[in-house]
Amino acid sequence: TRMEMNLAREWYLVGTPYCGNLEYVQARISE
Question: pTM to 2 decimals?
Fold first, then answer.
């Protein structure tokens, strides 16, 4: 799993629907 930043400067997880701030994305990963 890798994270990238899109053009809107939002973090997203490659291969998942998760997008938003870093804390949100990390919280989704750890579930």
Answer: 0.49
The partner residues of 11 in beta bridges, in order of sequence, read 5, 20
| SS3 of the chain: helix, strand, coil, percent, to 5 | 30, 25, 45
* Better pLDDT: 5 or 25: 5
Which amino acid makes up residue 27?
A: A
Q: How far apart, in Å, do the first and last CA atoms of the chain sit?
A: 14
Helix (H, G, I), strand (E, B) or coil at 14: coil
> The sheet that has 11-13: what strands, in order across it?
3-5, 11-13, 19-20
